[in-house]
Design brief:
The protein is of the alpha/beta class. It has 13 helices and 22 strands. The structure holds flavin-adenine dinucleotide. The site of flavin-adenine dinucleotide (FAD) has 35 residues, from α1, α2, α3, β4 and α9. Flavin-adenine dinucleotide (FAD) binds next to α1, α2, α3, β4 and α9.
């Protein structure tokens, strides 16, 4: 049967672009549709602009510490519009680079919303096209609470990169990684930050010792963290500022309210119900281990499947799928030992089992920690300790988890993730000579603490 395309990809984000490009490089005739901007969440309004803001924010501490290292600095000031515009210009550059990659691989781009119009059929604008295989890579969107009056007065991570002014006071709702990252960014840039967290701790699901350390450091830096607390209503005041009424404790007044309370898969309104495609609890598309839905011609990767909302996962899934469908290479994504980070101030990075997970799943567990003040902090007089934690399976001596908070933790942990994936033992780490003086040397010098 003739089709207009071999492969039609809906959504030009991390997963969609990779899958389209790889399929095209295998010789498939490929189209991709994008309703917002090519590059998707990560490039346009996620990882990339966020990380650039983190870099910008970190200068606050570096400049403060510089005097202890002998530098005399002139008057300091920060210009939000300057940073924002430079970040957005870099986003534009990446957007062009992604488009250029698609073009150079002969992928036809439709700059429009696409939906499923029947078996092997896609509707883009007022055109209907057919494809042998269709990929849904539509990502997710930030959730706004439906039951809080005035919730719409707040913004989400979609809007935060475009703020006209640096808010003097910002309230951030959420305890997950995005909330903590923006709390760090705005605090460093000079905003007064209040973080409102539903549960009794930050970063649920992450290694508790790191989450506790982050909380302690943030409180030391005078961020106002309200645990066990939820917004009840948001009201706009006569002067245009916001008042956030809480389930407990005094109200919060803020110039900007940022909701960071989760991301919902973009699966509604795509025509999935009409085709009888199976979905799960949060509306995500159900797929098998090879990313195919309940229909053999329809596939889904990335955040819309809600497996692990991370860019490298979406990319790998898209790559594996294109290899399998068009390249004769059958491989699947392995979801074990996936490293991840929180680019908070200081950053956190983690791979493998947390201590509570390991204690639940394994017979015996050995815990090794290093709790130290990084050398640059000592000289700077900065009272901020790093914490590294290794989780080891007592019966095999193999590393099953590594968790770190401190300067450059994500950079160091990426390498440790390789060691864990390779099945290295604690004894092998200990047999490695330390690289001195570094923070990472702590990893081969760690003491048993539990
Ligand atoms: P996306 O990249 O979201 O792409 C989906 C695309 O589909 C979008 O461009 C959308 O406009 C388009 N689309 C949707 N519906 C349609 C339609 N019907 N027709 C046409 N186009 C459509 N991950 C990390 O790994 N590290 C990080 O540090 C990190 N930081 C983040 C920070 C923030 C603030 C956010 C919001 C996310 C962050 N993420 C991070 C998560 C990461 O961005 C996502 O996991 C990743 O982008 C998912 O890729 P995807 O291909 O599934 O979807």
């Amino acid at each position: 049967m003739h089709h207009d395309f071999d492969y039609f990809v809906i959504g030009a984000g991390s997963g969609g672009v990779r899958s389209a490009r790889v399929a095209a490089s295998h010789g498939a005739k490929v189209a991709i549709a994008e309703e917002h901007r090519v590059g998707g969440t990560c490039v346009i309004r996620g990882c990339v602009p966020k990380k650039l803001l983190v870099f910008g924010a970190h200068f606050a501490e570096d400049l403060e510490d510089a005097t202890r290292f002998g530098w005399t600095l002139g008057a300091r000031s920060f210009d939000w519009q300057n940073l924002r515009d430079n970040v957005l210009a870099e986003v534009d550059r990446l957007n062009r680079a992604y488009q250029a990659t698609l073009d150079s691989h002969g992928v036809e781009t439709f700059h429009a919303r696409a939906v499923l119009a029947g078996p092997n059929r896609v509707r883009v604008g007022n055109r209907e096209l057919t494809a042998r295989h269709v990929l849904v890579a539509t990502g997710a969107h930030p959730q706004l609470p439906a039951d809080i009056p005035g919730a719409e007065l707040g913004i989400t991570s979609n809007e935060v990169f475009h703020l006209e002014h640096l808010p003097e006071r910002i309230a951030i709702v959420g305890g997950g990684y995005i909330a903590n990252e923006f709390a760090g960014i705005f605090h460093q840039l000079g905003s007064q930050v209040t973080q409102i967290v539903r549960s009794n701790r930050l970063l649920k699901g992450w290694e508790p010792a790191l989450a506790d350390r982050l909380l302690q450091i943030m409180m030391q830096k005078h961020l106002d963290i309200r645990l066990n607390c939820q917004p009840k209503a948001v009201v706009k005041q006569a002067d245009g500022t916001l008042r956030i009424l809480l389930s407990s404790g005094p109200d919060v007044e803020a110039d900007v309210l940022l909701w960071a309370v989760g991301r919902i898969p973009n699966a509604d309104g795509l025509g999935l119900e009409e085709l009888g495609v199976e979905r799960r609890n949060r509306g995500e598309i159900a797929v098998d281990s090879a990313n195919t839905t309940s229909l053999p011609w329809l596939h889904a990767v990335g955040d819309v499947t809600d497996r692990m909302q991370l860019t490298p996962i979406a990319i790998r899934e898209g790559h594996a799928l294109a290899d399998r469908l068009f390249g004769g290479r059958n491989w699947k994504v392995d979801y074990t030992h996936v490293p991840s980070a929180v680019f908070s101030h200081p950053p956190i990075a983690s791979v493998g089992l947390t201590e509570p997970e390991a204690r639940e799943r394994l017979g015996g567990v050995r815990i090794f920690t290093a709790d130290f003040r990084p050398m640059q902090h000592v000289l700077a007089g900065r009272d901020e300790r790093a914490l590294y934690k290794l989780v080891v399976d007592a019966s095999t001596d193999r590393l099953v988890g590594a968790h770190m908070i401190g300067p450059e933790a994500p950079e160091i942990l990426q390498v440790l993730a390789i060691a864990i994936r390779a099945g290295l033992t604690k004894a092998q780490l200990d047999s490695t000579v330390a690289l001195h003086p570094t923070m990472a040397e702590e990893l081969v010098l760690m003491r048993e603490t539990g």
